[in-house]
Design a protein that fits this description.
Elements lengths: L3 E5 L24 H4 L8 E5 L5 H12 L5 E6 L8 H9 L4 E4 L18 H9 L3 E4 L6 H10 L4 E4 L15 H11 L3 E4 L12 H15 L4 E3 L12 H11 L5 H15 L3
Helix pairs in contact: 3-4, 5-6, 6-7, 7-8
C-alpha cells in the first residue's frame, strides 16, 4: 500500500518570511527535498505544508512540488483569510492541481476565536466550495473553536494538525482528551498523528506517547487518522527515523488495514492525492 508523509516542510532562509525560525534554533538552516529523501524509506508520497504566513511561500512550495518528480502530491498553503479578495485568491490557487488546502497559523493568534470572525467566513466558504482542506494549526484551547467552525461550515474538510498539541511533557492529558473526543464525536474532522514528540520531554520514550496515540485511535479511529513527520521540526526532538519507528511500534497491534489507513490511505483520501 502507498505510504504517505502527510505533513512536512521545506524552507530557504534567504526568502526571509519565517519569523518563528530564529537563529538560536538548531534547524535554522535551509532544508530541501534532497535532505528529506534519504529519510523516507517506504514512503513514496508526501504533503508539503506552509511554514510562513505569506502567499509568496505558497508559490515557492508549489514550485518545489512541481519539481519533485511526483513525490510531493499536495501543498497546504496560506492566504490572508481576512482580506476582502481572499475568495478570489483561493480560487486562483485552486487552479493548480497540487494545491490541496490552506493553513492559517491559528496557534500564533492571540484571539482564540479569530477564525470565527465575520470577515473570515467568505474565505472559509470558498475553501469548502473548492473541496480544499482546512488544516487547523491549533492548541488544546482551540478545540471548542473547531467544533463551532464545523457547525458553521458543515462541508468544510478540517484536519487537526499535531492532534492539537497536547502538553505531553507536563502530562497534560486532560482536558485535551475530553475536548478532542468531542471534536471526533460531533464533527467529521480528521486528525494528524504528527508533532507529538516536540510536545514531549526531551528524553521522551515511546511509552510516553502511548496514552495519547491510543486516545486518538479510540476517538477518531484509523480511518480518520493520518501520519505525518513534521520534518524538519521533528529534528528538534529525536529526528525523523526515531519518530517513524515509535509510530510503527505504537500501531503494531492494529490490523493491517487499519495501519494502512493511518500510514497512507487516510491522507490519500482526504487530500485527494
Amino acid at each position: 500500500m502507498t505510504r504517505v508523509d502527510a505533513h512536512h516542510h521545506v524552507w530557504r532562509l534567504e526568502r526571509g518570511d519565517y519569523a518563528w525560525l530564529t537563529p538560536g534554533l538548531p534547524i535554522h538552516r535551509d532544508f530541501g527535498l534532497h535532505d528529506l529523501s534519504p529519510l523516507l524509506r517506504d514512503i513514496t508520497v508526501t504533503v508539503l505544508v506552509q511554514a510562513a504566513p505569506t502567499e509568496a511561500e505558497t508559490r515557492f512550495l508549489l514550485q518545489v512540488a512541481q519539481g519533485s518528480g511526483g513525490l510531493v502530491r499536495g501543498v497546504v498553503g496560506w492566504v490572508d483569510l481576512a482580506a476582502a479578495d481572499a475568495p478570489a485568491r483561493i480560487a486562483l490557487l485552486a487552479g493548480n492541481a497540487l494545491f490541496k488546502g490552506l493553513r492559517p497559523m491559528l496557534q500564533d493568534i492571540e484571539d482564540r476565536d479569530w477564525i470565527l470572525r465575520p470577515e473570515m467566513q467568505p474565505a472559509l466558504a470558498q475553501i469548502a466550495a473548492r473541496g480544499l482542506v482546512f488544516d487547523a494549526l491549533i492548541q488544546p484551547r482551540h478545540l471548542p473553536v473547531v467544533r463551532a467552525l464545523a457547525d458553521r461550515h458543515p462541508t468544510l474538510r478540517i484536519v487537526i494538525d499535531h492532534a492539537a498539541k497536547p502538553d505531553i511533557a507536563a502530562g497534560g492529558f486532560q482536558p485535551w482528551a475530553a475536548e478532542l473526543a468531542k471534536v471526533a464525536r460531533e464533527t467529521q474532522a480528521v486528525c494528524k498523528l504528527s508533532g507529538l514528540v516536540t510536545e514531549a520531554a526531551p528524553d521522551w520514550r515511546t511509552a510516553d506517547l502511548e496514552p495519547y496515540v491510543e486516545h486518538m485511535l479510540d476517538v477518531f479511529g484509523p480511518q480518520r487518522l493520518m501520519w505525518g513527520s513534521d520534518w524538519p521540526v521533528v529534528e528538534l526532538a529525536g529526528g525523523y527515523a526515531r519518530w517513524r519507528d515509535a509510530t510503527l511500534k505504537l500501531l503494531r497491534h492494529l490490523p493491517e488495514t487499519a495501519r494502512d489507513a493511518v500510514l497512507g490511505n487516510t491522507a490519500a483520501t482526504v487530500y485527494r492525492l
